[in-house]
Amino acid sequence: MPAREEPFPRAVLDVLGAAADRPVFEHGTRVVTGTEMLDLIARIATGLRANGIGPGDGLALLLGVNAEAFAAILAGHVVGARVVGVRPGLTEAQVRHLLGLDIAAVVTDAGGVAEGAPVRLTVPDLLTHSPEPLVRVGDDLASPPAEPLRCQGRPGDIARLIHTSGSTGAPKACAQTYASMTNAWTARPDAWPPAIRELATRLDRYLVFGSLSSQVMFEYAVLTLTAGGTIVVAGDPADAITRLKATARVITVPGLAKLVAAQKREPADVSTLKALLVSGSPLTPERHREALEILGPVLFHGYGQSETGMISMAMPSDPPGTVGKPPVDVEVRDGELFVRTPGQASGYWANPGESAEVFVDGWVRTRDLGRFDAFGYLRLTGRVRDVVIVNANLHYIGPIEQVIAEHPDVAEAYVVAVPDDETGEAVHAFVVPKADRVPELDELRALVTERLGAACAPAEVTAISEPPVAPSGKPDKRQLAKMINSA
After folding, report:
1. Does domain 388-486 have CATH number 1.20.1510.10?
2. 391 FRET partner, CA 20 to 30 A, in 14, 79, 440, 471?
3. Fold: same for 189-385 and 388-486
4. Residue ranges of the AMP-dependent synthetase/ligase domain (predicted)?
């Protein structure tokens, strides 16, 4: 197959080839050049093929944040596998679920999941719940082939599964085809929309942390390479801008608030900073203006979903409170937002029911509300979904209510999302007690954490005799939220 016709990650491999001796990845004192990264990718791809992994096979990745992890993701795509990244923060049951999704092999490194992850599973644990063979990065992988790497992904095959938060117990998997990943703009400068073209000039040193299985973290890393920059590992991103002289990093809205507060209280040297990539939840106009005032013109506020990829992005010069103007190749119907993007998912893996609700006639139903202003900027105005967004991860409220209601002292449970300075939003539980005993907050937190993870655990609990009722006859959660605000 001619190189120009090869699917993703052909464009990324070409970028690395052109980089040659230029540093593309930095981890502490270790610096990896474009040629060395290609060598890593080739070795891992050869090892995968030697273990029978090829087009259409499921490949789960439990990796830290390092050069081998980045190479392993690309190698999985080189051989045409269906790549499933297992991110930190999932419960053991959720990890087991992911490893049961028709997985042919598991790739891990010595540390298993990323250092400092809330959920730690040893390699023997993973072997117990995953099929053979197990391919370990760096262990007995064959030498790279003499001929150039050939990308074997088939256009209609699923290239990767991007998992949602898992608040329903089993994370939903957004299935993106090789054709979709090839059509995406990240590694194609000729397709960059204006906001990305501007951002690309600021990605000299882009911080990665947490997990390279994060869709946002990985795609900005690919953009950095394409723009001629270097991916820099930050074990703790808190002081990494100053310590590592970073020019760009991903940040959540709560993280941005903390950074702004810290700069107001005791300014650090962030003179190298050129781009903060704000994602995960809406940014209010007031917070947007304050961040621009304190940090300067460095905010790029992206709006997108796992199902769609980027929908739009506000540049520092765009009006605060907007998420910019969608690129010309992205279609948006306002009101309840329906969108079409070049790199959108094709549905949820093995979930036809939910796929039919969200993926409709080529459109993706975002379940967000928004409108275009008179100047063509997109403004988000609310959401249709009953969800809470904690640390930029979306969690459905229904399953949280169901778990709380299983407590022996709870007759009914209702959950609302409330603003939280630490996490963006948090869970507030309202319970109708059985008899006279109100369950302790710690009991409910332990119950929810065990089943759905710590992010879903209630921050507060309020006992009520009965919920307020809307004209529809359903519990009125807006009234519950007002009870919190008036308390």
Report:
1. no
2. 440
3. no
4. 20-349
